[in-house]
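User: I'm new to structure prediction. If I give you an amino acid sequence, what do you actually give back? Let's try with this one:
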Amino acid sequence: MTKTQKTATSPSGEYTAKDIYVLEGLEPVRKRPGMYIGSTGVDGLHHLIWEIVDNSLDEAIAGHAKNIDIEIFQNNRVRVADDGRGIPVDIHPQTKKSALETVLTTLHAGAKFGGKAYQVSGGLHGVGASVVNALSSYMKAEVCRDGTKYEQEYARGKPKAKVKKVGSCKKTGTTIEFDADPEVFPIIKFEQKRILSHLRQQAYLTSGVRMTFHDQSSKDLPAGKAGNQPHSFYFEGGLASYVKYLTRNLKPHHENIFSAKGEREEIIIEAAFRYTEEFEPYEESFANNIYTPDGGTHLTGFRTAFTRILNDYAKQNNFIKGDEEGLTGDDVREGLTAVVSVKIKEPQFEGQTKAKLGNPEAKTAVEAVVAESLKDFFERNPQDAKAIIEKCLLASKARKAAKAARQTVLRKGILEGLALPGKLADCISKDPAESELYLVEGESAGGSGKQARDRRFQAILPLRGKILNVERARLDKMLESKEIKSLVIALGTAIAQDFSIEKLRYQRVIIMTDGDVDGAHIRTLLLTLFYRYFKPIIEAGYLYNAQPPLYKIQAAKNIQYAYTEEEKDKIVKKLAAKPNIQRYKGLGEMNPDELWETTMNPENRVLLRVTIEDAKDADRIFDILMGEEVFPRKKFIQTYAKSVKNLDI
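Assistant: Good question. You get back a string of structure tokens that encode the predicted 3D arrangement of the chain. For your 649 residues, that looks like this:
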């Protein structure tokens, strides 16, 4: 035992009171920031904005604010201002400090614990604000109350001075400015797209409140230029308008959007949905305007009522007869886009990041309101009801057919045993952590890949031609494809309800296609397949795109490879002699040693990990590019065609 280790405990090795460290004030937040904001990556960074905006939204929900302004400056300073009542500044009887200082420097200090100032809130007012303060190198709070402007500044959660009067003001409100602390966040770069999506969502959820965002962080865009203009969101239509927005590029399956609003057990419930011609469901749930990505009791209540009422209606109107099997939850959710929102006095979230709602009374309340409203909707809109039930019945038939197809594939995989798909050149290693599976197009590229690979840990699966576009096919039809069946068996995970990522045989699945238009198309089809049916593989970070070179540039014995047109031009300019430039049209044109050295050798290669930043936005792009509707795809091509620098025809 070293000397430094001895000082950690008492000399006798006992565990005594002096071994207990007490973190005071906001020190716990700085010690373990992930416990409060989820991570110190890009999600946690943006969570700082959400926490301050949530406090302004609470003022709006309570009826005291109509405008919320968010601004990001070139130095990445964030400013959030509202026209609410303003945080109180008088002396707090318990802390003997200003209420403003108490709220912004003390965990679990705020107006929402007593239940009087806020009937509904995003949770623990003061926790979010004080956490942001703790994780900011600088923060300034300005409060307008009773005609006076007050101000206090902080550094890493500690006040720099007492609250002071700095002038007068005619209106009321609170303004918070903060600089995210570089000691906590390795990268401080806010994403306009992410922020706009969040604020748009909140504006739909809080009808009648205007949210304005101005991003001045880009040094390339001087003020006033397009792209540096303020964005403003204001909606009166509530969740029905939000569902209309979410399905804007999709073909609706029925005419009217279902919308419900009611109150049970002092819980305000809103819900809306629409069916489209899609196969995948999309649901969003909120509690006190806080997005709950993992759902919770409110979403469970919606699903329960939804499945029960659809089954009741189907049986009462002879869509389902006698002892026929009823509709399952998966049947009624196929093609569904739904949003559920509750406003509740004492929300019970799982963790400070509020990913899941746990209030049991929310399930009962949502179930009652949705069931009653859905019955009324079906009575008033019989044509919509018929269209919805028929779609659900079709989904039920497809589910049964898909189950039989999945079982066939699974049986095939079991029977083939170690042989696996015939064209799979498997690796020697059976350890998924070190094993790689390359998905390549065609026999020629497959041959080069098999010769180039390191057999110890690299497997090659050639795919013939362009695989089925799964965006336009149900699972039972999809599994009729030999190429897709081979891929399912090779991965080892099964598919759909039988999927298990623990059975994945390779923890690096690498799409390696040609650099031309056909290669890009095949890559898009494979990405669509993984996004629809193997999303956990993407979420685990196991899916990659290989980056084979476009050019081989040789001058005498000097050989270099270029992966882009720009890189090629730079290399050619630097070479004194006139070089020989070879344009690779496909992987099959590369010698095995070239393919290994440039694309497959872990020491030299460049792999791009496939991630899902915004699932719904990715969903929308796939729908546009791969779906049945021609007009959205045409519009997309017309919009972005000019940005394409090089196109092989």
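You can read the tokens as a compact description of the fold. Here is one thing that stands out. The chain has a mean pLDDT of 83.
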